[in-house]
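It is worth pausing here to work through a concrete case rather than discussing structure prediction in the abstract. The textbook approach is simple: state the sequence, then state the predicted structure, then interpret. We follow exactly that order.
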Amino acid sequence: MTYGMIATWRMACDGIAAATKDLANGGTSQKAIVDAIKMVEDYPFYKSVGYGGLPNEVGMVELDAAFMNGDNFDIGAVAGSRGVKNPIAVAEKLSHERFNSFIVGDGVAKYAIKEGFEMQNMLTERAKKTWSNRLDEMSRSNLSPYDGHDTVGMVAVDKTGSMSCGTSSSGLFMKKEGRVGDSPLSGSGFYVDSEIGGATATGLGEDLMKGCLSYETVRLMGTGLEPQAAVHQAMTTFANQLERRKGKCGAFSLVAMNNKGEWGVATNVEFSFAVATENLEPTIYLAYPAEDGGYPTIEVASQEWLDAYQTRITAPIQ
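Step two, the predicted structure:
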């Protein structure tokens, strides 16, 4: 059997690079997902996930995360988590619970403390300054408060054919206290079936959750479609419906991988993602939506793009 991982955004690449080394040595997809997402959660310069994630309207960091085991459909999820260092690890633990597998708000920290998970103040000075600057901009120029919704989502398959997926996000910057997007919702932010494949989404959660696009992608793969065809059909069909019936459609980006390690991507915005398989070294790609509604243009990210990205995310906040 082969192995592989696909993930949303450039920020996921270091995590999947490390996790696929473990997969190559016989590691499980379950461990790969948790280990890789924890690396994203722990890096303070990724402003949409974990430590350093941007806060809500009252300056609190509320995190959402989910984990799914494709072998038995076990799911664990948290929403509105405060003060828990690695929400993905808690979500994975919850996936083993017969009851109470989705916990929100204050209940997340209570469960995490009881189960021995590490607690941490997730608001960095950098994120606090960004939040304060946004408040000033809003008061001066009537700027919309909402910005950013870059969920890290991953799908993995190991050498035994077992598949898993996971998500983690601080959600929409300046969101209302208690707001939850698609990321921890089964079928919307993520879905995986080891007999078929998995998919995960990033973008505007309020629109993504209307279409259950991760589940739809897996369903279409189950009919025999290759991942690229399935994810493209799932996204474009619903995006077109939303445009026709509501008049607008938010940012949608999805990645998918089947149990053979084949992968696909769909997006209606410029989007970066990362892939590593038995036959492909960890690689960061850029995807651009096609003007004619066809498959996106996909190219390997240049060193210039990667350098500019690193400079941008680590630049001092004035």
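Step three, interpretation. The chain has one domain: 4-314. DSSP finds nine helices and 13 strands in the chain.
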